[in-house]
């Protein structure tokens, strides 16, 4: 990163925690073995993978790591595997999948691919606060429904869907319908437990929680019920035949360490991030004209704030911050397109609000001084409330 820049784009990716790097390094050099090899070097790698698998499972409450954690290249692949793998294994039972309009592109694009292969997809809309109406989920369920996929924390707004309530509702109406959640923005930030929250499949990714890029996991429930999955990458039969390919040993070691750290610090870190986010929002909203927070202000993860600055006409503010403060105009995955964010749009926000919105996402290494410098810089560019005159 640019040395003078302030990094407030932790929803796009996080800096590797130095403790994670330290845990990974020996697995690039001394212990470089292939975890599938039967000789000593292979065993050493396999043991490290086993430790990582337990740490990863432990963060989300999986009690059977060896059967339930499938390592992937990240959450995009985990989402693809969850949706395609379930659709292809259960298509004899039904072809209906329910998801939401605010999902990550990796879920939406997978759904549109599945649609061409005969899936019937229902996209639930959201209320202006970004939350799904549970009644609409209930109404969408049919005897043909095989899977519901609803993300836990939205990557653009930080809005938290009531996953446990939604999975409960599905279970009551149709006990055989599977529930998948993309927990990439919530795992390690707020509590999530596959047992307590009634989750059958869960995707997450190391690089969103201070681990390395290129490593993620799909949790697949092994009992009550045992979830079937058709593999999407075949070969040597790794990961219980669900995802072939030589395991990314250093990545898995780092992912495990990152999960362990996140679990140990979650309460304190969450308090700290909430305080910093509130400082940022109060500093900006209280002093500028036409500024507001997008999305539900209460049901929200601590690290994301999506704010609209109505005086930021045509995104000038964004270009002013460019090179000084790393923020996102929409989500990083969709900034190469000129269209407004599909998430903000689905919340019914006006074009002006969408154009003037910025996503700030804070992280473990964000400091109070950085927040203050960010506020100061933005206030220089916007008309202050104290001096604002109606045009
Ligand atoms: C980042 C992100 C993904 C994609 O994760 P990768 O590991 O980068 O593939 C999926 N879903 C959400 C909500 C994300 O924030």
How is this structure best described in words?
By secondary structure, this protein is an alpha/beta fold. Helix content is 38%, strand content 13%. It has 13 helices and twelve strands. It has helices at 18-24, 40-60, 65-68, 75-90, 105-116, 134-140, 163-173, 238-241, 249-285, 316-321, 342-346, 351-355, 368-381; strands spanning 6-7, 69-72, 96-100, 120-124, 145-149, 178-182, 201-205, 216-220, 291-293, 304-309, 325-326, 357-361. The strands form three sheets. A seven-stranded mixed beta sheet has the order 2-8-7-6-5-3-4, sandwiched between helices. Helix 1 (18-24) packs antiparallel against helix 9 and helix 4 packs parallel to helix 5 (105-116). Mean pLDDT is 93; it is low at 331-335.
Helix content percent band:
25-40%
Q: Note the overall shape.
A: globular
Q: Give the helix/strand class.
A: alpha/beta
Number of helices: 13
Give the integer mean of the pLDDT values.
Answer: 93
The quaternary structure here is single chain
Ligands: pyridoxal-5'-phosphate
- Separation, N- and C-terminal Cα atoms: 40 Å
Uncertain spans: 331-335
**Widest sheet: strand order?**
2-8-7-6-5-3-4
Strand content: 5-15%
Total strand segments: 12
Largest sheet, strands/sense/barrel: 7 strands, mixed
> What is the string of SSEs from the N terminus onward?
EHHHEHEHEHEHEEEHHEEHEHHEH
Backbone CA Rg: 21 Å
């Amino acid at each position: 990163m640019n040395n003078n820049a302030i990094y407030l784009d932790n929803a796009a990716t996080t800096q590797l925690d130095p403790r994670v790097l330290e845990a990974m390094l020996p697995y690039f050099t001394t212990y470089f073995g292939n975890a599938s090899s039967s000789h000593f070097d292979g065993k050493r790698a396999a043991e490290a993978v086993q430790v990582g698998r337990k740490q990863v499972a432990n963060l989300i409450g999986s009690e059977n790591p060896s059967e339930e954690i499938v390592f992937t290249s990240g959450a995009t692949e985990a989402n693809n595997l969850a949706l395609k793998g379930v659709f292809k294994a259960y298509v004899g039972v039904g072809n209906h999948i329910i998801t939401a309009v605010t999902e990550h592109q990796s879920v939406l694009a997978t759904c549109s691919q599945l649609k061409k292969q005969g899936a019937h997809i229902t996209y639930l809309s959201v209320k202006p606060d970004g939350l799904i109406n549970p009644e609409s989920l209930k109404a969408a369920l049919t005897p043909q429904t095989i899977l519901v996929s609803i993300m836990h924390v939205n990557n653009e707004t930080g809005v938290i869907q009531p996953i446990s309530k939604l999975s409960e509702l599905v279970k009551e109406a149709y006990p055989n319908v599977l529930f998948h959640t993309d927990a990439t923005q919530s795992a390690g930030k707020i509590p999530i437990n596959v047992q307590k929250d009634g989750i059958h499949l869960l995707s997450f990714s190391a690089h969103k929680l201070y681990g390395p890029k290129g490593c993620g996991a799909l949790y697949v429930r092994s009992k009550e019920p045992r979830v079937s999955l058709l593999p999407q990458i075949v070969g040597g039969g790794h990961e219980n035949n669900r995802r072939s390919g030589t395991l990314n040993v250093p990545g898995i070691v780092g992912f495990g360490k990152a999960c362990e750290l996140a679990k140990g610090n979650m309460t304190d870190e969450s308090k700290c991030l909430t305080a910093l986010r509130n400082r940022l929002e109060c500093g900006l909203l209280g002093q500028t004209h036409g500024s507001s927070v997008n999305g539900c202000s209460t049901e929200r993860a601590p690290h994301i704030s999506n704010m609209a600055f109505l005086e930021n006409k045509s995104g000038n503010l964004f270009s002013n911050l460019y090179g000084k403060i790393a923020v996102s105009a929409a989500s990083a995955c969709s900034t190469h397109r000129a269209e407004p964010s599909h998430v903000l749009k689905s919340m019914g926000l006006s074009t002006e609000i969408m154009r003037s919105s910025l996503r700030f996402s804070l992280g473990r290494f964000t400091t109070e001084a950085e927040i203050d410098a960010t506020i100061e810089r933005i206030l220089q560019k916007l008309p202050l409330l104290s001096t604002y005159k109606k045009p």
